[in-house]
Amino acid sequence: MKSIKLLALTSAFVLALAGCNETGDDKKAADGEGDADKKLAFASTYAAFPSKSTLITNAYIIQGNGEAIENGSVLVVDGKISAIGAGTVEGEADTKINANGRYVTPGIIDIHSHLGDYPSPSVNAHNDGNEITGPVTAEVFAEHGVWPQDPGFDEALAGGITTLHILPGSANLFGGRGVTLRNVPSRSVQGMKFPGAPYTLKMACGENPKRVYGQKGGPGSRMGNVAGYRKQWIAAQAYKKKLDAGDDIKRDLRMETLAGVLSGDILVQMHCYRADEMVQLLDVAKEFDYKITTFHHAIEAYKIGDVLAEHGTCAAMWADWYGFKMEAYDTIQENVPFVHAQGACAMIHSDSDMGIQRLNQEVAKTWANGNRAGLDISEAEAWKWLTLNPAKGLGIDEETGSLEVGKRADLVLWSENPFSSYAVADQVYIDGALMLDRASGLKPRSDFRLGHPGAK
Amino acid sequence: MIKRILFSSIIAAAISVSASAQEPSVVFLDNVSVSPDQTVDMIIRNGKIQRIAAELQAPATARAMTGGGQWVTSGMFAPLTSLGLVEIGAEDSTDDRRAKDAKTSVSDMASDGFNPQSPIIDNTRVSGVTHAGIIGSASQNIFAGTGFIANMSGDFDSVEKDGAFIYVQLGSRGGKLAGGSRPAAISQLKNALSDAKTRMSSPDDGDALSRRDAAALSKAARGQMPMVIGANRASDLLRIIELRDEFGLDVIIAGGADAWMVADELKAAKMRLIIDPIANLPGSFDTVGARIDNPKLLAEAGVDFAFMSFSESTSHNVRILNQHAGNAVANGLSWERALAAVTTTPAKWFGVDVGSADQGADTFVVWDGDPLQVTSAPVMIVINGEEQPLISRQRELRDRYNPKREDTRAHKYR
Description:
Chain A is of the alpha/beta class. Chain A is built from 13 helices and 16 strands. Chain A has a domain of 304 residues: Metal-dependent hydrolases (TIM Barrel), CATH 3.20.20. In chain A, the strands form 2 sheets. In chain A, strands 1, 2, 3, 4, 5, 14, 15 and 16 form an 8-stranded mixed beta sheet that branches. Chain A has an 8-stranded mixed beta sheet with strand order 6-7-8-9-10-11-12-13. In chain A, strand 1 and strand 2 form a beta hairpin. By secondary structure, chain B is α/β, with parallel strands linked by helices. In chain B, helix 5 links the parallel strand 10 and strand 11. The N terminus of chain B is likely disordered.
């Protein structure tokens, strides 16, 4: 996932990689293919908020890469981690913060959110997360449904969320493209888009597609689900062949997305619960030579941790949700640590506007249960489930997900150990800019909140 | 009841104790916390807290829990759940919460659908919930039927109090159930209360209820049975106070997202509320006032409240009630008040005993840490003097697939 290939199909991504949001520069990124308008579609206009250089000392630092520094300092300059280490670090800063032993961690990344697509209030007019008009809608983009005024973004920030991935829902076999966002106030979704982050494709296994389409032309069974995937991949292979040959073909948004998966530029995020179904889908991926980056929900991932490890496929899981449908019946409270212990890439996810506000507690629960069951995983190791592993699942781990020199300064200063129920985020920084500060009351507030009596 | 006692060799936590057949069963707890600022020594004999003192000698026959850091509390009480009424949310054949096409409502006894053998009861119990209020959802009018209180032993005789409360849905959802509007819902409630006090000559004499449903509402209509009323908007909460006074009802409000806005009125009315301490999003136009410090503001105003997880789960994941209480503490509520809100406060309202950490208690939970911490879990649970097995379907799955297991046979033979 580290190598980010340029692809004409993933336009915004290409532009952002070129380090430029200006319209005139697309030629060098475009690699001579396609037309300019296509390249410009929905490009990120994200710009970091203004920041001061900041030195945090006397902190218990969980780096997110498995390491912890008991009494350390971190220096942030120009929005990046400039220095980090035990004791004091070299360098001057405009703002100096003595953490007094408080915890500093990377900002949390939620790989599975529908904020903006299913915003608060959840009135009928706000149901923008599932294109339930057919089982194959690889042509839709989650970002086109995102309402940046969702008050959920602000509360997620208060829970330490600095980056989040918005996915279409799971009604469809191919749900559409997901988008990775910086959790910053913006009037448009373009202003939140993580520059350079690859697009993803949401796919879904199991009960949902067959339930939704069983009486609407299918798929009506798990058999139909798999046939449905294979049919589309066959078409996508043919489309890509023409594309690679430089044939003059009519643009097809659905096929562009699927061809992007086949060329490795679009990452597959696959909703799947049962162990046997995940194994089936790994075989579909093998047949058509693409990679499933992450299984989402993955209720039974603990049963096949070794298989996931072998395929290099991650699992994004809950701490304890279960039972809302048959395929969610076999949850255990140790799913995340058991997958981790089998050598696979494990992570937490929310799929919830409530859960996203306390993912640190969700990890704390499942971590404690894992150790109670005989594992011996440190807090520092478990923190990977909140930041570095979801960053890997999104192809942004070179830029964020851990506190290391040169990476984006996305970090949280916690009131106490974030594995405690009592911990709250005292400060949240995104690209070194202070976005939330409990002491001063600094917190973004959606337009929707104005004139209503709720949270200030 | 035959307790299934299975212990995996893998789960050898230092402090785990077995309910083995030692006679008499004696447990010694050294330096156990009963509140954030008090630790004691404790002797538990035959499912009862026999002695508490600053320093005690361990009895010779005792299983000692000396791993350190244990706590003892009363059992947790989840006041408004559908535990044992539903196995799989999306499978109608396993779901007894709703009866949209039934001709009855108030007279539907939730206990008639209760399955104490559901694995979900075990999952709930091993997380420290010893008792729950149980009822379905309103589905064809504003009445959800008649609820009951059960303990989480999983025994066939675990219903401790049947006919314990009535549930009434108001707010926007109540309006839809009543035909389309809040005024229609209030009318339906008033008419039903009137029906409940009227002697009817034919089965469909009532203005809102049939003869049997009206009879089932009779006690609640006279204030002799708690009427739990679901509502969130501040204007709805004030209207409920008026209705209670007008009809002489024994009301507990469920929801109360806007309660902080009318805290003084709720206090003056001595109103009790079941609130969700983490509900802070304007999820609907009924809850645009939701805020995370609702519990703190209500406590400051002197309002009586208990906690329930409306935002996360009222069935399978009820077990995270202690996490909810912990989050209330994180947002300004005292630890003692938060614990009471998930234990003794609601238990008192519904007239059941969830025990205590006091001498003589025969219902209690021993935890391996602060019970409001997400990292803590029960290591011993006693309900009505009977030590409960700490096993569940989920734990059997856990043991079967534990990466540290020694059993290398195929999973179905493990």
